[in-house]
Design a protein that fits this description.
4-stranded parallel sheet; globular; 16 strands; alpha+beta
Length: about 325
């Protein structure tokens, strides 16, 4: 198999020696071309080139942000193309959370995950997954596991600012930042409303989680599952919070931490499951993220489910 490997040299949980070992292991099984990402958006450019050059697979050694860029590069092609026409994706976790890789059932350790990926390559084991797509301010982008508007995107924005100063995005840093930010966030004026084809409208939403699969994220080894029915084989799910006060949050948090099969309950929750399309509108700009990547502030975003979009060797 002829494959392109995209390596993020700044990935959180791998070092130069580990990367060399993984590259040698992959190269022993595939005809491998290795490219390092050098700037934001570079992975999408490399993946787009690999697709055009006829590579059978594109592997990623990096975190969720690098994977998201790669996926968007692979899907940036002519209309009408189906998953079988695109290079298959191979995922080796190298970031801080690695939500997409873990949602696929891969080990969180990059060495163990490489072994699992090589087994899939040898046996030809593939899985076709659906993606989400967001449109805002004239832009469009696919996402693999989640998007969000409001409080969670604000936390991601704060952590990205810390990363810009050289700090690592560890689970503890996310938790501490979320707790500090909660104290100062606006809990009285909910800016967002929800609408969509066949969907009962709702307003007064402070925070919206849009999921293409579950978990939404991880806190260390523990999954966080606000939309436990979401999967790569169904449409998009949503959890909207109409209250951010301490009693409401204390009621919600035990219901979403850990592996769950039941939806969270509460009078001030807005929930959707297996939807093709819906739109969130805000009366003022709110923070916006895709796959853990902060993308600025928006006042309107439309989300669509893209079924059977991508083949993954897993």
């Amino acid at each position: 198999m002829r494959a392109m490997l995209l390596v993020n040299p700044k990935a959180t949980t791998t070092n130069h020696r580990t990367r060399d070992v993984l590259i040698r292991a992959l190269g022993a099984t595939m005809e491998l071309t290795v490219e390092e990402t050098r700037y934001r958006g570079h992975a999408a450019h490399i993946a787009r080139t690999a697709h055009a050059d006829g590579f059978a697979a594109v592997a990623v050694l990096g975190g969720d942000g690098t994977i998201n860029e790669t996926v968007n590069g692979l899907l940036d092609a002519e209309d009408g193309e189906v998953a079988a026409d695109r290079p298959a994706l191979l995922v080796i976790p190298g970031g801080s959370a690695n939500v997409f890789a873990r949602a696929l059932g891969l080990p969180n350790d990059p060495v163990e995950a490489t072994g699992a990926v090589l087994e899939a390559v040898t046996s030809g084991r593939r899985r076709t997954v659906g993606l989400g797509q967001a449109e805002w301010n004239g832009e469009s982008r696919y996402f693999t596991f989640c998007s969000g508007l409001g409080y969670d995107a604000e936390v991601i924005r704060a952590v990205e600012g810390m990363r810009g100063t050289g700090l690592k995005a560890t689970p503890a840093r996310y938790v501490n930042t979320a707790l500090r930010h909660y104290v100062s966030t606006d809990k009285r004026h909910a800016p967002m409303s929800l609408e969509g084809p066949g969907i009962p409208p709702a307003d007064g939403i402070f925070m919206a989680v849009v999921s293409n699969t579950s978990p939404w994220t991880y806190v260390g080894p523990r999954p966080v599952c606000p939309t436990p029915w979401a999967s790569f084989e169904t449409g998009l799910d949503l959890l909207g919070l109409q209250r951010l006060g301490l009693p409401s949050m204390l009621h919600l948090m035990p219901q979403i931490i850990g592996t769950r099969e039941t939806l969270p309950t509460g009078r001030h929750l807005v929930q959707l499951h297996d939807e093709k399309e819906f739109t969130l509108t805000a009366e003022r700009p709110v923070a916006f993220q895709l796959d853990g990547d902060y993308l600025g502030e928006v006042e309107r975003a439309t989300f669509r489910s893209i079924p059977n979009a991508l083949q993954v060797l897993v």
